[in-house]
Amino acid sequence: MRILVTGGAGFIGSSLCEKLIQSGHKVVALDSMFRGSAANLAEIVDHNGFTLYTGDVRDVDDLDACVDILGGLDLVYHLAAINGTKWFHEAAHSVIDVNINGTLRTLEIAMAHDAKYVFASSPEAFGEPILQPMSDGDPMIFTDPKQHQRHSYGGSKYLGEIACQHAARDGLEVAIVRPFNAYGPRLSGDDYGQVVAMFFRQMQESKPLNIHGDGSQTRSFTWIDDVVDGFVKAGMLDLPTGEVFNLGSQEEVSIQYLAQKVAECGEGVEFDSTEGYHGDVKRRLPNIENSANMLGWEATTSLQEGLQIMWRALNS
Fold first, then answer.
1. Which of 215, 229, 246, 315 is within CB 3.0–4.6 Å of 256 for a Cys-Cys bond?
2. Against a cut of 0.90, is the pTM above it?
């Protein structure tokens, strides 16, 4: 297949590109390199079926250039977005612009070429959910934007899902995927990154692991290979259009517990506590019934196993 992966030099996107190339597909990774890195694609950059194209997902000319490289278009995996929790509040305008307009442009190019479209949404699309586990069809609740702009990201993913469902209604073959707290060695651990990688970076720098609040908030951390497996299946299987798939571990753990497990990978680790992010949800547990039934998917890597693999990779 001829496949475009937007955000293809990013954390999930680069691993997805590797898997697709290993499976014999022709792949172009489109990335602005704002958070992506060519180093993430080192293992496949010289493969004759792969091209890294530096460009803007909102730019129709860049998208057309990618299609020209592929010689047509069969499948779009749209992962390009501004992610990283601090950005949501600090750069809300850019988050909204890139995430919404990038989704609209990639939907348009998929429709123009009658290509299947897989949208990387997020559990943030639920806003501040009341119900757990989080299930497709549950209310999506967003609080007053005067309080904070964190929901610039979740709101953009919510609107992206609306645009996808509109395209599905008009006949495009669409699948929506919501990865829950994916983690792995390429995950950003800087101040704009995600918690697992931030903990490991702090430990490497002999700093205390910084826990937000009392650390009782829970998440479902999902190993990168399991997440990529779900993306691949969503794109390759013959599915009814408009289906939504939560990809998340059923091992719900607190941030305090996560910090303890990360600390076990090293020695002499200390902890400290600071105020959390605006609008941070207390629990996040996915209902994966649709993923299990339609994709045959479930997370197979335990948190303990994944953290050990990640720590070894970061120190190799």
1. 215
2. yes
Specify whether the CB–CB gap between 192 and 84 falls below 8 A: yes
> In three state form, how does the secondary structure of the chain look?
CEEEEECCCCHHHHHHHHHHHHCCCEEEEEECCCCCCHHHHCCCCCCCCEEEEECCCCCHHHHHHHHHHHCCCCEEEECCCCCCHHHHHHCHHHHHHHHHHHHHHHHHHHHHHCCEEEEECCHHHHECCCCCCECCCCCCECCCCCCCCCHHHHHHHHHHHHHHHHHHHCCCCEEEEEECCEECCCCCCCCCCCHHHHHHHHHHCCCCEEEECCCCCEECCEEHHHHHHHHHHHHHCCCCCCEEEEECCCCCEEHHHHHHHHHCCCCCCCEEEECCCCCCCCCCCECCHHHHHHHCCCCCCCHHHHHHHHHHHHCC
C-alpha 11/C-alpha 36 separation (Å) is: 7
The CATH classification number of 81-183+223-249+286-300 equals 3.40.50.720
Measured distance CA(218)–CA(182) in Å, rounded: 14
pLDDT one-digit tens code per residue, 66-100: 999 999 999 999 999 998 878 888 899 999 999 99
Residue-range domain boundaries for the chain:
81-183+223-249+286-300
Tell me if 253 sits within 8 A of 262, measured CB to CB: no
